[in-house]
Amino acid sequence: MTGVDLGIPRVPGTRTAPDQPRPDDPALIDSFGRVATDLRVSLTDKCNLRCTYCMPAEGLDWMPGEDVLTDDELIRLMDIAVRLLGVTDIRLTGGEPLLRPRLEDLVARITSLRPRPRLSMTTNGIGLARRAPAFAEAGLDRINVSLDSVNPETFARITRRDRLSHVLAALAAAHEAGLTPVKINAVLLRGINDHEATDLLRFALENDYHLRFIEQMPLDAQHGWNRAEMITADEILDLLGAEFTLTPSPVERGGAPAERWLVDGGPHEVGVIPSVTRPFCAACERTRLTADGAIRSCLFSTTETDVRGLLRRGADDEEIADTWRDAMWGKLAGHEINEAGFAQPIRPMSAIGG
Fold first, then answer.
1. Residue 206 falls in which region: left (phi positive, over 0), alpha (psi -120 to 50) or beta
2. Are 207 and 71 within 8 A, CB to CB?
3. How far apart are CA 44 and CA 208, in angstroms?
4. Do residues 351 and 63 make contact, with C-beta atoms less than 8 angstroms apart?
5. pTM for the full model?
6. Confidence of residue 216 (pLDDT cuts 50, 70, 90)
7. Which of 152, 218, 278, 289 is deepest in the core (most CB within 10 A)?
8. Using CA atoms, how far apart are residues 171 and 158, in angstroms rounded to an integer?
């Protein structure tokens, strides 16, 4: 922590920039007292699945190759983040990060940074099974795999690809390689896989995976999100409660997004991330870097700050760090999904990074 008292985050609803000057503090502080120590780095906007709640069947127009940060540019920015800005955790995301060429080498370079950040990755798992040992050898600490169904027909309906066996093999390989705890991220869709909530939890318990259900968020490329169709956190708990007894976990949540529940008295847990109905914005510790070099203070930001241009015109580390600090100082109190004036980001999730 920085020791600077900046007050308590106010209730979302005000989009104005902070009216007080930024204190002379090296960390990624904002005007509501939060400190960003968790960096989400998108490595590509490309994906080899076509999940219905993320993008259309035909895919999207991908970023031009010259716009995407090079490995050297990524490493320089991550070095600035951990050395000058106090970042302690880095998560690699996409799109699908496994589509990034020579990713094992990039992981090894990241884990060689000092101070050494904790490094994790979120992936759909396609192709991970054969690469998991190499990622563990390179220093990757743990992994999250997106999986919305363990039923082949439902999986294919959601992802528009018949690849469930590949994802299941990825989970097993990650566990065997020691990329633990292996976490599963699942989204329930009304009338499609909501009846399979207990199947997913039973599968996770049987294989010692950590399951987290995430409320569907308005980040689809089609801008077709409908709040009335979203399965809420309370509904998820009700669905699970039909078969399991859930009690609140005694572990303090801190800045983690998931509400954690002991399953049948423990020790196994299930997480529910109520991003929409019970947002955790007041405790948010995240800052984001897109694959084309933009800093985002929030997943739902409607503005972003270009650092790729700074890199390519020769800016020094301190100028880049100061630009990053200023971008985070202007972070809003919350994502405002529940406010009348909410505007969905132009970029979809695949171009922002999960």
1. alpha
2. no
3. 30
4. yes
5. 0.91
6. confident
7. 289
8. 19
